[in-house]
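Q: Predict the bound structure with N-(aminocarbonyl)-beta-alanine.
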Amino acid sequence: MKTLIKGGTVITAAETILADILIEDEKIKAIGLDFSEEGITSVINALGKLVMPGGIDVHTHFDLPMFDTVSSDDHYTGHKAAAFGGTTSVIDFVSQDKETLKESVETWHKKADKKAAIDFSFHMNITHFDEKIAKEIPQLRELGINSVKVFTAYNHRLRLDDGYIIKVMRIAKESGILVLVHAENGDVIEVLVDEALRAGHTEPVWHARTRPTLGEVESVYRTIKLSELAESPVYIVHMNTKGGVDHVRDARQKRLPVMGETCPQYLFFTADYLLRPDGAKWICSPPVRSKEDNAGVWHAVEDGTMQVMATDHCPFFYDGTTPIEYEGVRIAIPGKELGKSDFTKIPNGLPGVGDRMLVMWTKGVVEGHISPNQFVQMMCTNPAKVFGLYPQKGTILPGSDADLAIWDPDREFTYGVKFSQQRTDYNLYEGWNLKGAIEKVFMRGKLIVDDQVWHGNRGGGRYIRRGEITVL
Ligand code: URP
Ligand code: ZN
Ligand code: ZN
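A: Predicted complex:
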């Protein structure tokens, strides 16, 4: 099977060129001009279109149990939404809820393998640590996993104490595993939540008020110092404060192996959204912050302090008592309404896996914050390099997987829940006018999205065993 994508403007992290792309079976065979069309199965005219690598979202939570419900996209619906939004690989987080790490990973394979519609991999959460787990962490490499996430917040649930974090960092470093850190101050949150509830504060905005900016800033600084003490690289997830990204910038200027990831929600929304009658829609952890923080995070995106733009996709219905139609079936999954009378019971998380590329193209590239090449770097190439997928994924090179998105840069449209394919009843970007539409998406050479029509399938995605991490 040979496909020729002809006449497109090919954008990679390094360059923008006019070129044809020859795909043979699952791989990019060649990039150039004037290929013979003999033996070509399908010729795609990409004149006036942009051709970019498929996106890689390294931070998703599909089918994640939380409080009395579960995130509303599973490993099929979430993958499908990702594909419509130009993303062809995802990395999801495995909960540590079985006796051994291997058993926990198997649980995630059982959830994902038969449903996967795009290629996928896993990070392992370390939320409980002892000498047995210490021995198991290096064995994750044999399962194709080269990253673990630890939490400085969610006391009594997911948090690890600093002593355990430094132990995880040392072991990870020895095994070529990257430590990802969720940085907030769990103790401060615990005190503030307790005080808020005692004072009768139950509204969504108290979610943000009890997870203070300074707690995040302090925790980011502490995380950097722990990684320095452990002499281990670190990658801080979902960064959201000006103070936090400033600490990462300082560390990187000192040549420390510190990397940062942010997500679109931390560029566009503030805690004031939580004051709206439907404020629960914006509840995520860490919370959305202030205009100053948005500006600080934008600056960190522009100047490369943040290497990766992910989503932390963890969607819930806003009103999980009212069904939506999904692939012809009516479905409702308990969601944000669970916390109607207590903000601590609102499931934490936002939809975004399908929104990321489209929103960031308009808001990032069209509005002049980043260049098209920086866009590809943050959305595709850096995620692949950091997490050991490069050059199989995240770029357009001979021999790379033919994961490609063809964009119409001129098409303007109004975005929202009706457009997005995420399995939830709302969209954060409802009514936003976007410029730049995704027309076709190839995953390993197979056309899986064509003009808003789905050609992918459950089980079409493959588990990716990841190689060496790269510290950027
Ligand atoms: O609110 C969020 N982000 N839920 C997912 C869990 C996490 O900490 O990433
Ligand atoms: Zn987190
Ligand atoms: Zn997350």
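A: The pocket of zinc ion (ligand 2) is lined by residues 182, 237-238 (CB under 6 Å).
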